[in-house]
Amino acid sequence: MSELADRLVSGDRAALARAITLVESTRADHQGDARALLTDVMEHTGGAVRIGLTGVPGVGKSTLIKAFGTFLTRQGHKVAVLAVDPSSTRTKGSILGDKTRMGALATDPDAFIRPSPSAGTLGGVTRKTRESLLLCEAAGFDVVIIETVGVGQSETEIAGMVDVFVALMLPGAGDELQGIKKGLLEHAEILFVNKADGGNEKRARRAARDLEAALHLFTPTNPHWQPKVLTGSALEGRGMDTLWEAITAHRRAMQAAGAFDARRREQQVGWMRAMVEAMVLERFKASPAIRSALPGLESDVADGSLPASEAAERLIALWTKTRFD
Ligand code: GDP
Q1: Atom 15, ligand 1: which residue's CA is nearest?
Q2: What Pfam families does the record point to (predicted)?
Q3: Ligand 1 centroid to 170 CA: how many Å?
């Protein structure tokens, strides 16, 4: 195991790919190995700019990642791209993080692209992504982009693992309102109105103004940063420099306020708490005593002969008892 850790820390891409496979595996022995590996490399983590990127399908996420990733690797950065897509399965082909959508970035030696792990609960997928993020950092990637589709819950999950949250928007009328409805604006710290090209520039600028106006209706969730609205074209590679400037300005503002480290600390503790909850539930459900008692209790609750609270209490008591037998 420590050999894999050594190779990972030395920046070996094959080792990184193997390590992520280990983290994604559902086999108990693999999970144990993954935990040991993460513990080994922990001191080498934390060094990346962690960027969350979201937006509705078709807004231009993969096109932007291609352009932005290439812009960054040309400046000497090492860029990793991870995807969170709870709807995808390996067999169906992942929508996000698909290497064929990333063009030249997929073969760039300074870029690492990892598609979404196979379908599971959102919590399960994001847990794997969080751990993969740490592995990418240990392997020396100094920018990690986490891509997700702009659908409700995943935003909150991603906001909980990145330093800065970027939302891609379309210049079309009404989309800014759509963003508000979806709660997208709640987490977005940088908004990038994409497709400001081919005669769309004016519309994009108007959308940006509308978004700015809409943002003023919100109490910012981050008191140290007023969300920035940018326009650009992923297709033409325009606006990549201002996007990076906004990301670094955000980082400076957070650091100056002492909020950067505080956010990371909170996120780390939050991950642990979320994991405890998930693990307790998982083990509860897997317990043979619970599995045999559950159908009977459920039918008693269903036909009204037992209060739900009493059934719940009995299940917990049963589980507690079997754990100490
Ligand atoms: P995703 O689903 O968010 O990953 O979106 P894609 O990156 O796959 O882009 C969807 C479509 O929009 C593709 O046909 C892209 O070529 C196009 N597209 C992406 N960015 C731009 C842009 O900046 N300008 C224009 N005109 N088209 C774009």
Answers
A1: 60
A2: MeaB
A3: 10
* Closest ligand 1 atom to 232 CA: 23
Give 20-74 pLDDT, tens digit per residue.
999 988 888 998 999 999 999 999 999 999 999 988 888 899 999 999 999 999 9
82-102 pLDDT, tens per residue?
Answer: 988 766 544 444 455 565 667
Domains of the chain: 1-44 (1.20.5.170), 45-257 (3.40.50.300), 287-324 (no CATH)
Decide if the complex's ipTM is over 0.85: yes
Question: Following DSSP, what letter does each residue of 162-219 receive, concatenated?
Answer: -SEEEEEE--STTHHHHHHHTTHHHH-SEEEE----TT-HHHHHHHHHHHHHHHTTSP
Contact of 188 with 214, CB cutoff 8 Å? no
List Cα–Cα distances, 113 to 116, 138, 273, in angstroms: 10, 15, 29
Q: Are 172 and 207 in contact (CB under 8 A)?
A: yes
